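Q: What structure does this chain adopt?
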Amino acid sequence: MEIKLYVGNLSYTTTEDDLRTLFAKAGQVASVALITDRSTGNSKGFAFVEMTTQVEAEQAISMLNGFNLGDRELKVNLAKPREDRSSGGFGNRSSGSDNRSSGFGNRSKRR
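A:
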């Protein structure tokens, strides 16, 4: 079972190959996913690296958390499970049940 690590504070010029090479020093790397902006394709400055065992993941954390790569101090820790984004946010606004006007009408009526 692969163990997913969060890698933050990356230089925007860091590549997946750079990370694969670096993390291979701690053990076998199952995958590397450099997170990029959808519209520009530019790096967002973080990635996820999957190590093949818990021991290798712990080794990578101890070796590489605080490691200087591209003049930046890496933040490496266990990745947290992805939060469900389906609740809340802009997509689930109420349909006027809070008695506020939803239009651009006269604001003085809201007082």
